[in-house]
Amino acid sequence: MSTTMKLALGSLAVGFAVLAMKILAYRMTGSIALYSDALESTVNVVTAFAALIAVHIAAKPADETHPYGHHKAEFFSAVLEGVMIVIAALLILREAYFGLMNPAELDLPLTGIVVNFAATVVNSIWAYILITYGRRHKSPALVADGRHLLTDVVTSVGVVAGILLALGTGWWILDPILAAFVAVNILWSGSKLIKESLSGLMDEAVPPETLTRIRDIITAHAHGASEVHDLLTRHAGPAIFIEFHLIVAGDMTVFEAHEICDEIENALEHAFDGARVTIHVEPEHKSKQSGALVLN
């Protein structure tokens, strides 16, 4: 079983454990703010399950119907997570509205806060693990899951602080107000996650720093070529797709041109695990610029 799959399974287990703790905290206090926190954890469980499925599909090798692999499955999971976050935010806003209309005193707030705080500690540790290993293994689904949990940690801390303030002042209306702030925060987080994931589905180019590195590698290993142009890139999870036109002398043999391509491909694949490189070789009369090796 791959590391990403193990982490996806771990997210599901942690999600259920944290959800149980937060539901307990809500039941003990009746706090709308803690209810909003528990509702977000419900989303965590659903999206962790979606991430598990996405990681499993993305790990499948290319086949006849998917010759470029299944890497984009993880982006679908991240989009789903963003949508679920938005839905949770709207449900929390609904509960906050009714709470504002009828603010009520909380039961056993300190005990509930302790339980909720324990769940927050678990979430913060697991968020760090997911983001760290998700970036290392270039898994959008795991990174999205970790960032969502990190948002959950921030809102949980805010919830606890607000309840303590309400407990100290007796202003119980702070509870639904705080729940509304939580909803707005996760609504922003969800919309941002959807936007970033859709960029991946739309074949967004690699980041500028990665593109610069690709250019440098091609320049350093294109010995015998006179020009490179029409460099295009896109990314899908751990896979990077690179294609460009390579200009060589018109009298160069196929073998010699193929050797140059092999050297460039090997260098790119060594630098970027999972890189898919496509090179179109052209004779010198197809050159777009003259002089030394040119990238554009």
From TrEMBL:
<dbReference type="InterPro" id="IPR027470">
    <property type="entry name" value="Cation_efflux_CTD"/>
</dbReference>
<feature type="domain" description="Cation efflux protein cytoplasmic">
    <location>
        <begin position="207"/>
        <end position="284"/>
    </location>
</feature>
<feature type="domain" description="Cation efflux protein transmembrane">
    <location>
        <begin position="11"/>
        <end position="202"/>
    </location>
</feature>
<dbReference type="Pfam" id="PF01545">
    <property type="entry name" value="Cation_efflux"/>
</dbReference>
<keyword id="KW-0813">Transport</keyword>
<keyword id="KW-1003">Cell membrane</keyword>
<keyword id="KW-0812">Transmembrane</keyword>
<feature type="transmembrane region" description="Helical">
    <location>
        <begin position="75"/>
        <end position="93"/>
    </location>
</feature>
<comment type="similarity">
    <text>Belongs to the cation diffusion facilitator (CDF) transporter (TC 2.A.4) family.</text>
</comment>
<dbReference type="InterPro" id="IPR058533">
    <property type="entry name" value="Cation_efflux_TM"/>
</dbReference>
<feature type="transmembrane region" description="Helical">
    <location>
        <begin position="41"/>
        <end position="59"/>
    </location>
</feature>
<protein>
    <recommendedName>
        <fullName>Protein p34</fullName>
    </recommendedName>
</protein>
<feature type="transmembrane region" description="Helical">
    <location>
        <begin position="146"/>
        <end position="165"/>
    </location>
</feature>
<dbReference type="InterPro" id="IPR002524">
    <property type="entry name" value="Cation_efflux"/>
</dbReference>
<keyword id="KW-1133">Transmembrane helix</keyword>
<dbReference type="GO" id="GO:0006882">
    <property type="term" value="P:intracellular zinc ion homeostasis"/>
</dbReference>
<dbReference type="GO" id="GO:0015086">
    <property type="term" value="F:cadmium ion transmembrane transporter activity"/>
</dbReference>
<dbReference type="InterPro" id="IPR050291">
    <property type="entry name" value="CDF_Transporter"/>
</dbReference>
<feature type="transmembrane region" description="Helical">
    <location>
        <begin position="113"/>
        <end position="134"/>
    </location>
</feature>
<dbReference type="GO" id="GO:0015093">
    <property type="term" value="F:ferrous iron transmembrane transporter activity"/>
</dbReference>
<dbReference type="Pfam" id="PF16916">
    <property type="entry name" value="ZT_dimer"/>
</dbReference>
<dbReference type="GO" id="GO:0015341">
    <property type="term" value="F:zinc efflux antiporter activity"/>
</dbReference>
<keyword id="KW-0472">Membrane</keyword>
<dbReference type="InterPro" id="IPR027469">
    <property type="entry name" value="Cation_efflux_TMD_sf"/>
</dbReference>
<dbReference type="InterPro" id="IPR036837">
    <property type="entry name" value="Cation_efflux_CTD_sf"/>
</dbReference>
<dbReference type="GO" id="GO:0005886">
    <property type="term" value="C:plasma membrane"/>
</dbReference>
